[in-house]
Amino acid sequence: MFSCLRFGLNTYVYAPKDDVKHRSRWRDLYSYEESIELNIVYSSEKDLNALKRKFDQLSNCGCEHWALLFDDIEHEMSSQDQTRFTSFAHAQVAVTNAIYDYLNKPNLFLFCPTQYCSRMAKSALETSP
Domain GH84, which positions (predicted)? Predict the structure, then answer.
């Protein structure tokens, strides 16, 4: 793997663009099989550790600034998450705080929740959990 620092790069934003349904076929809905592969179980240690490994790999390349973006995903919690978290926001904040702490509280850490605008909020943004 090339050195990101050699090119002056020290920021990582994870927003995969190789997903054709994220780019060229964005109007097409995911099949059920595809959608279950995209979900994170916020209460899963396995999923949290997989996310940590992803950040470790890029930290080793010299990345110092981070973004964790949960935008434009389904806003329903799994039954496993519902037993641990009081709300969808609580689940996302728990994972975000865990990663932020894991990265030793970097100076630049961007976060975008799923419900960031009225279109993504249940009912209205002001009353969304």
Answer: 1-129
